[in-house]
Amino acid sequence: MRYAETGVNLEVDLTRGNIERVQTNPRDTELYLGGLGTNAKILWDRVPPEVEPFSPDNLLIFSAGLLCGTPATGCNRTIVSTISPQTLLMAFSMMGGFWAPELKYAGYDKVILRGKSPELVYLWINNDKVEIRDASHLQGKGATETAELIRQELKEPKAQVAAIGLAGENRVYFASIEQGRSSASRLGIGAVMGDKGVKAIAVRGTGDINIAQPTEFLELCHEVLEYIKFRNENPIPGVMTILQGLGSPQEMQVHDEKWHTENFMWGNSRVRRRDFWTEEVKKAWTQSMENMRTRLISCYNCPMKCGATISPPGQPTYMMKCFSKLTYTMAAMSDLDFGLRIAQHATEYGVDGYSTPQVMAFAIELYENGILTDDDMPGMPSDNEGRFYWLLDRIVRREGIGDVLANGTYWAAKEIGNGAEEYAHNNIKKHEQLPLKLSMLNPVYFLMYATGEKINITQIEGQFPQAPYPKREHREAFVKDWFQVPDEKFKQYFLDWEPRGENSNPYYPTVQMCCDIVDWQEKMHYIDDALGMCAGLSSFPLKPPYHIHNYPKFISAGAGIDMDEAKLSQAAKRYRTLVRAVNIRRGLRRKDDKPPENHWKKRFPELEKELLDTYYKFKGWNNEGIPTKASLHELDLDYVSEDFIQRGILTDSEDAPSEEISAGKERE
Ligand code: SF4
After folding, report:
1. What is the pLDDT, as a whole number, of residue 240?
2. Which of these, 75, 94, 408, 638, is most buried using a 10 Å CB contact count?
């Protein structure tokens, strides 16, 4: 009997129209857990580095996390993995909502798409009845609109539908997959879905899943709920509002946007407006939000209500959460009313709410600097807001300059030339990042930006405070109930961290401490992504209900796998290394491990080199960032080192790279 997971994947060959149910190997679950872990294993085994993102041989994997569908609060993530058209590396983007538990109840852990459908189709998974259906009538429809039309057509109002909009159909490199109450947005996975000719996947499941030790499991769930209640009633003092509690930052409830609007950058991540947040702005923005926010909503089995339905007057309702509240507003140098209105179009088109505004602001900057001209932008309105609507329409349709911009700032800058590359300054590994430009190098964030393979900083950070508290007594109070730490030493790291002086950035936390901190944060995110847990209840907040001490118990009682902290850490390290290996095989090297240009004004090249050297060693990687033969052996990944040796990435005698290549081979 399989516990927590179903033990069955759905394999869909879109070229041949063939659907198979495939039993999975329980040994893989022990080694790689589920979700991201087993996705990485499948991509390693079946998608060699020669396969391009838009090749029929690329896979698009929708995976429910290992504990999705169990009563574990907040465990509802779908992990979508493929090869990204943007980075040419492995993409793994998560969505919350209701889709993953529904898939489990239908009897499957993953849906694996391969090949390409000659016509636009959608997949209808209704328990054990699975069909590929014609979607020609849905061509060009919005993502939310598509979901509704499919539910009506199937006469199944409870079907959960993940769909793409026009951007995905047109293979926009930052196209998202939208799913009613959530979306998987990063790294262009919606473009791969569109390329495969799949408009949507609708799921309805009415089955059950087995829990290994139900009484123990429910007791653990109860403890988590009690803790959530406690934390909601006792916000953490001394940190900004969005870090005080749990969940995804409560952007739909919070009206005070002083911190974001004065610290994050406006336009193409250039302009900081230090005195922006006045009483007048606050009043106007509060009114915009209250006028358009119809209600607060949660994902499956979660009390946190991080999202909201937004109904701009005269426009259909859509779902929003988190920082996308401000991304369009700030990129267009506009106001919240505009941000909430344009986001409705963007959601229907199905585009990433982080990248899209950045790409448009980049285009405006090129235009203002004469690199793009009126010939490139025929008929573009003169006002900023009008320009954003105009650009969005062209990008999702790939019309004119929109066709170039639809590839994201990195590729667009190369194609435009004439100095445009200097304006694509906010990328890591070819992908747009949060619009932040700061002063003093932060060594922890340096390592996270440089080495993170999630390629999204907000999904790497968490757990350890972002900044020291000014007074030691406050730090002492903070560490008192900090039981989530994997080791007591982290408390000391924090206690000794000062805002100024010897024990401050960039030389404190020390290099070794930075390695420990980044590794801990990263590990928790990777565990979440295998279990299907929302980062908002685990790896992202400072004092979450899920942590390294109770996770092994959840896995043992839920999935029936004998688990402890060491084994769990080793499993997370194994599939984290496998993600690295997939990318190394695709050309990722040390030269790609760097933060966005000008992210910090004050840089320290020697310290940065030492940070990277030490972290690589700490992770068991050689000087080029390639996992060594010995470290791969220790992780039961000998098949990876054999492949590396065969390809000349490692040599048999030494762990040295045989050639210099750059991340994700450049396009011809
Ligand atoms: S914490 Fe928020 S984002 Fe996470 S599952 Fe709950 S409602 Fe969804």
Report:
1. 75
2. 75
The Cα–Cα gap between 371 and 386 comes to 20
Determine phi and psi for 161, rounding to 5 degrees: -125, 125
Contact predicate 529/94, CB 8 Å:
yes
Q: Say what the pLDDT of residue 181 is.
A: 79
Read off the tokens for 647.
């390809």
What is the end-to-end Cα distance of the chain in Å, rounded? Answer: 50
How many CB atoms neighbour CB 221 within 10 A?
Answer: 20
Of residues 481, 478, 485, 463, the one with CA closest to residue 549: 485
Stretch (H or E) spanning 449: helix 443-451
pLDDT digits (tens, 9 = 90+) for 472-491: 999 999 999 999 999 999 99
pLDDT digits (tens, 9 = 90+) for 48-58: 999 999 999 99
Ligand 1 pocket check for 236: Cβ under 6 Å: no
Compute the CA torsion angle 482, 487, 490, 492 (nearest 10 deg): 90
Q: Is 299 in the pocket of ligand 1 (CB under 6 A)?
A: yes
Which stretches of the chain drop beneath a pLDDT of 70? 459, 654-665, 667-668
For ligand 1, whether the C-beta of 97 sits within 6 Å is: no
Q: Could you tell me whether strands 110-114 and 8-13 are parallel, antiparallel, or unpaired per DSSP bridges?
A: parallel
DSSP characters for 213-237? SHHHHHHHHHHHHHHHHHHHHSPPT
Our answer on whether the CB atom of 101 is closer than 6 Å to any ligand 1 atom is no
Measure 520 CA to ligand 1 centroid, in angstroms: 22
Three state DSSP letters for 338-407: HHHHHHHHHHHHCECCCHHHHHHHHHHHHHHCCCCCCCCCCCCCCCHHHHHHHHHHHHHHCCCHHHHHCC
Residue 662 pLDDT: 59
Contact 52, 98 (CB under 8 A): no
- Ligand 1 center to residue 299 CA distance, Å? 5
